[in-house]
Amino acid sequence: MTIETITKRTAPSRTNDPEGTKRNIIEVATKEFAQNGLSGARIDEIAAKTKSSKRMIYYYFGDKDGLYLKVLEDAYSRMRMTEAALDLEDLPPAEALAKLVRFTFDHHNGHEDFIRLVMIENIHHGEFLAKSSVIQKLNVTAIDAVRRLYGRGVEQGVFRAGLDPIEVHWQISALCFFNVSNRATFSQIFKRDLGSRKSLDSLREAVVEMVVRHLKAD
To answer: Which segments show compositional bias classed as Polar residues (predicted)?
Structure first.
């Protein structure tokens, strides 16, 4: 059997737009993995909801694990790309920090699938995230942005010295993440709609105030 014959039998044949097809598969797979987890998601179901086939999905992504990893990389990439466009360097440190916290809060609130994917990956102890050089590089960039912002604040006497930028990033992420991950249980337990516009506005500004006060110099 020749290489040409093998290629004809394995290459996808139903698309003239491979990038568009991959984009469609990733979008559908994101919802499936977020809803059902890695073990519960089915390639057959993903194929049925896309403009592709099961064979095409395997051709582009290798297997279900490969598709799941690509979904994770895409979710982190889109967040970091939007975050990078905030132009924090042009703002005074305290204003830049407040803008970063508001962005993180609003991003997480508007991207529940991202939160669910991160929760699922934590169930897998970060196994797939650890395999991705893409995500590692993206998060180094995110920490560098926090480090530069914090450094400017310390130099100008706005922020107190001695804080760890990774811990600052963790604190921002934790407060904004919890707003989505635990909203349903909190709302049920305390009989208050914490997803209402009024509650979200109040929670967001409280998170901004807590983070900014934590960093501010005495």
So the answer is: 1-15
Two tokens at 131?
């395999």
* Amino acid of residue 55: R
Residue 84 vs residues 90, 110, 139, 153, 164: alpha-carbon distances, Å: 12, 18, 12, 19, 21
* Cα(79)–Cα(111) distance, integer angstroms: 9
90-96: long-range pairs with CB below 8 Å, 24+: 92/156, 92/158, 93/149, 93/150, 93/152, 93/153, 93/156, 93/158, 93/159, 94/153, 94/158, 94/159, 94/212, 94/216, 96/149, 96/152
Contact 46/57 with Cβ under 8 angstroms? yes
Domains belonging to the chain, first-starting first, are 1-62 (1.10.10.60), 72-215 (1.10.357.10)
216 strand-pairing partners: 159
CA distance 20 to 25: 9
Distance (Å, whole) CA 67 – CA 46: 11
Yes or no: say if 51 and 15 are a contact pair by the CB < 8 Å rule: yes
In Å, how far from its chain's centre is CA 97?
Answer: 19
Judge contact between 25 and 63, C-beta under 8 A. Answer: no
Mind listing the pLDDT tens digit for each residue in 123-165?
A: 999 999 999 999 988 888 889 999 999 999 999 999 999 999 9
